[in-house]
Specification:
The protein is built from one helix and ten strands. It is mainly β.
């Protein structure tokens, strides 16, 4: 039993269609007209990126050539959620939505590693980790009808990020 840590960087794709449905549902709650199904919609979204700084207990089970590690880590995540822009045009009306933020959030990870020893200090490492963190950002929304623009009250958008990290690489053991 010991203390382990990790620093990692990841970039993940987003599920664009599901996020667009959620966003349209939220916008349709305003008193302005709903976004109709025939609206011309432009929705742009980038990738999730985040840096994890983790530390916590690690249980190592050594073998002759293979070492197994079980770990439960806590830490901080620096999250770069995807920038979002939505423009929905219909009749003489347009909704424009944007959201962009960086977050510092609590995160945790559970995982296991198998380390196969090649030489005294060099190894091949195979690992799997479940990561959980969340992001929060403010959105900006306006509605234009007949060249008159109304700034609508923005809303806070919370996104939960669950990921499974699989790793394969070379390791140097001290």
């Amino acid at each position: 039993m010991g203390i382990g840590g990790a620093i990692s960087f990841s970039t993940n794709p987003v599920y664009k269609e599901a996020l667009l449905r959620k966003l349209k549902t939220k916008i349709n709650q305003y008193e302005q007209p709903d976004i109709p199904s025939f609206a011309d919609i432009s929705f742009e979204q980038e990738f999730w990126s985040y840096v994890l700084l983790l530390v916590g207990p690690t249980l190592s089970i050594p073998g002759e050539r293979i070492q197994w590690n079980l770990k439960a880590h806590l830490g901080l995540s620096v999250i770069f959620p995807p920038t979002e822009t939505l423009e929905a045009s219909f009749d003489n009306s347009t909704y424009y939505h944007s959201a962009d933020a960086q977050n510092l959030s609590f995160c945790y990870a559970f995982g296991a590693d198998a380390i196969y020893k090649l030489q005294s200090n060099y190894s091949i490492k195979l690992g799997a980790n479940y990561i959980h963190t969340q992001s929060e950002k403010q959105t900006h929304l306006n509605y234009t009808e007949d060249n008159t623009t109304q700034l609508l009250e923005g809303f806070t958008k919370k996104d939960v990020l669950n990921a499974l990290h699989l790793t394969l690489g070379l390791a140097y053991l001290f």
